[in-house]
Amino acid sequence: MTVQQFPKDFLWGGATAANQLEGAYQEDGKGLSLPDVLPGGKERMTVVNQPDFDFSLNEDKYFYPNHIGIDHYHHFKEDIALFAEMGFKCYRFSIAWSRIFPNGDDQEPNEAGLKFYDDLIAECLKYNIEPVITISHYELPLNLVKKYGGWKNKQLIDFYEQFARTVLTRYHDQVKYWMTFNEINSAAHFPIMSQGLAVSNGATDKKNIFQAWHNQFVASAKAVKIGHELDANLQIGCMILYATTYSYDANPVNQTATMKANQENNFFCADVQVRGHYPAYTASLLAKYNLQPQDIDYTDAELDLIAQYPVDYIGFSYYMSAVEEVTQANHESVKGNLMGGVRNPFLKTSDWGWQIDPAGLRIALNQLYDRYQKPLFIVENGLGAKDQLDENNYVADDYRIDYLRQHIQAIGEALDDGVDVMGYTPWGCIDLVSASTGEMSKRYGFIYVDVDDAGHGTFNRYKKKSFAWYQQVIASNGANLD
Question: Which residues are responsible for catalysis (predicted)?
Fold first, then answer.
């Protein structure tokens, strides 16, 4: 069987997030965001989940890499030119909420912040690169965490609506593709990033997680409503973290555990945002945490809004697969994208312990398309590795090329299966700060940025071997993966 040709309008590109690359964390009126108080290093999540973590800066004790990022704020023209040289058809990025509304609850937007995105979008369009914008990507204004308690507070719906209306109104003529929340379902494991909830302000109470999700579902529906009223042709998607999940063996107990894990981890948020209503297993899922539907503060009007304004497509990240095993406790464990689990003996792992599974991407695409029949957009996928510049300022990252080649082949196979795939934007198309660990040494990009974990370096940009390889992939529309 020959692999299906990629559609002629397939959106090849790359993906980043404002808080991980822009820097300039207090420039031109920007307010503090949640990532601005997350320290760098492998213990990042351990630190923020201490009971006494109060979301304050302690620069005597910690380094905060998001303050600097890769200084994209001052290098964006150079960076977009490099993306254009690779042939990008699209570029997925996010708008920093606290750059537009410094405190999140401001009455008027910060014009200097909007001007930055005016210029960034114009630079993309200059090269015929389609902007793909995530409205909220792990960058909640810090004031909305400290004053309002994060997304468990219904007031954030109105603040998000104002933010979404501001950027959609300003850019709908230039930007066709949007996503409402990044990896909204990641709160199942780490609500700090997407919901602004840590141990110190309610993360251990699952009622808060589900309430925050409901509030985000309402906010997402409002963004879809605003966007479609501005232009019915706008494409506004959800964005979920997806980890294809296998049972360790044929034991029905493990098979059942896999079914339940898929419902909670992979499907719940998408079921609501795509189908427009809570799934039948909602009560069962809540009961797992001794909750009932009436424990969640919701109204019929909110449910009607969710039903009327589902998303147009499904964006998702795919880095790894997972294994469910509940009958034994002596299996080797591995790390992962905000979650780990049992080691799959058939898979290799990355430098950070994430299980590499290209076939799992084909399975993910089929599972999602079978379930929803909506276009799919792979908006994150990539290999974090310890790249080293040689004496010629070059990185021969064949390991990354091999990883991406296998995953692109899997996309081709899914197309052959009949799946509707819109595009592919590998994560961290240029090196940036890791969300989970705050490290620069965990590099994903086609472009090396000379800055280390302590924020030291020239910030010069250098093309890796994968740069030319991805250039030919795009030029051949996926036909030449050699």
Answer: 380 (nucleophile)
